Amino acid sequence: MKLFKIAAATALVIFSAGSLAARPTSIVFDSNAANDAGQSYARYIVKCSNGKKAELTAWDNRKKWCVGDAGSDVCEKKQINAAKGACKAPR
């Protein structure tokens, strides 16, 4: 019985830690820019629930969202998915 209680408590702690993962709290436009090849993009700053700030870049008239600077290849089709990825990424 005691082993069951310990296992249940451990499972609860693991589940709670997963639900406390950093999430985006705001996404703010920062600037427009162009890369070396002349492609234009927009730069955004994501603020996360854990205090982290991360950069997003938007390409192809905001149809492609990438985590990080202009050289990043970690991209999503939706802004919110990219922002969530930016908050989950290691600092």
SSE map:
Layout: H1 2-19, E1 24-34, E2 40-48, E3 53-59, E4 64-67, E5 75-76, H2 79-88
Antiparallel strand pairs: 1-2, 2-3, 3-4, 4-5
What key phrases describe this protein's structure?
alpha+beta, 91 residues, single chain
What does this structure look like?
With 91 residues, the protein is α+β, with helices and mostly antiparallel strands. The chain is 31% helix and 36% strand. It is built from 2 helices and 5 strands; from the N terminus they run H-E-E-E-E-E-H. It has a 5-stranded antiparallel beta sheet. The longest helix has 18 residues, at 2-19.
Please outline what is shown here.
It contains two helices and five strands, in the order H-E-E-E-E-E-H. It has 91 residues and is of the alpha+beta class.
The H-and-E topology, N to C, reads as HEEEEEH
| Number of E-type strands | 5
- Could you name the ranges where pLDDT drops below 50 across 5 or more consecutive residues? none
Largest sheet: 5 strands, antiparallel
Overall, the morphology is elongated
> Please, what is the average pLDDT?
85
Approximately how much helix is present in the residues? 25-40%
User: What is the beta-strand fraction?
Assistant: 35-45%
What is the SS-derived class?
alpha+beta
Span of the ends, CA to CA: 41 Å
Question: Tally the helices: what do you get?
Answer: 2
Question: Any idea what the radius of gyration is?
Answer: 18 Å
Order of strands in the sheet with most strands: 1-2-3-4-5
